[in-house]
Structure formats: structure tokens, C-alpha cells
Design brief:
The chain is of the alpha/beta class. It has five helices and six strands. It has a six-stranded mixed β-sheet, sandwiched between helices. The longest helix has 18 residues. The mean pLDDT is about 90.
């Protein structure tokens, strides 16, 4: 198993949790972004800088991931592709995307985009909180516990 991170908008606190998990569980973590990202010195942790452009990082992750890999992303279409390819997708706020919930999440995303395009102010997501950080850490621990059995 490898962990891939759609890192352009990933909160720093989530990256720190992933860096500690990589060392603790000896799992490779790769951050993918269209900008340079600093990573701790570790053979298990690396970053890949892709070109600027729509979905370039997403396409890179999907092309490189394997069955059973974990992808950390806020991007719902990317999460859908990961699930379709046999991976696990986890939102940085700790929501596990599944075959059962991804279609509903895609529909809601499309609906909200339609509202925004018609001029409705839908607001943005709430600030990343300590509770979000804890929920992510707990969900990550559950996922990693399953693979170390």
C-alpha cells in the first residue's frame, strides 16, 4: 500500500499526521502538487511537482496509484476515480469516500456548482478545525490498522 496526497489544498496538519504515520507504519507517502512542497528527510516521504493545469495532479495520481492504495483528497471526482480503480479515498476532514456514498457526493457537488454558476452565493467550507484533524487521524488509524493485520 502507498498513500498518495492531492496536496495543493491539503491542510498542513493533515500532512504532518501522514508524515508521522509513514514513519510509524513504514508506508510510502507521496505528495502531488503543482507547486514545490517541502517534505521531511525520509526515504518514505516524497513530493512530486506536476505542471500547472486543470486536473494535472489528479490525473497523475490516478495513473500512478495501484489497487489498494490510499488517496487523500478533497476532490470528489478524483475520489470517484480512485474508488473505481480499487483504491481507498479519504477526505482530509476524515470522511471516507465509498462506493455507497460517492454517487451522492458527486450529485451534491454538481448541484452546488450549478447554483454557483447561476449566481447563488453558496459560501465556502468551514475552517479546518481541531475536530476535523482528530476525525482524519482516527479514520487514518482505522485504515492503517486493517492493512497491518
Amino acid at each position: 500500500m502507498q498513500i498518495w496526497v492531492d496536496a495543493d489544498a491539503c491542510p498542513k496538519a493533515v500532512k504532518q499526521i501522514l508524515f508521522r504515520a509513514a514513519e510509524r507504519k513504514e508506508i510510502s507517502v507521496t505528495l502531488v502538487a503543482n507547486q514545490f512542497l517541502s517534505t521531511p528527510p525520509s526515504p518514505l516521504i516524497k513530493s512530486v511537482q506536476v505542471e500547472q493545469g486543470f486536473d494535472v495532479a489528479d490525473n497523475y495520481i490516478v495513473s500512478k496509484m495501484d489497487l489498494g492504495d490510499l488517496v487523500i483528497t478533497q476532490d470528489i471526482p478524483l475520489a470517484a476515480e480512485v474508488i473505481e480503480k480499487g483504491g481507498t479515498a479519504l477526505h482530509p476532514r476524515g470522511e471516507l469516500f465509498t462506493k455507497e456514498n460517492i454517487r451522492q457526493r458527486l450529485s451534491m457537488r454538481d448541484f452546488m456548482e450549478t447554483l454557483r454558476n447561476s449566481g447563488v452565493d453558496t459560501g465556502g467550507p468551514a475552517s479546518f478545525s481541531q475536530a476535523d484533524k482528530q476525525q482524519f487521524a482516527n479514520q487514518l488509524d482505522r485504515i492503517l490498522a486493517k492493512i497491518s493485520r
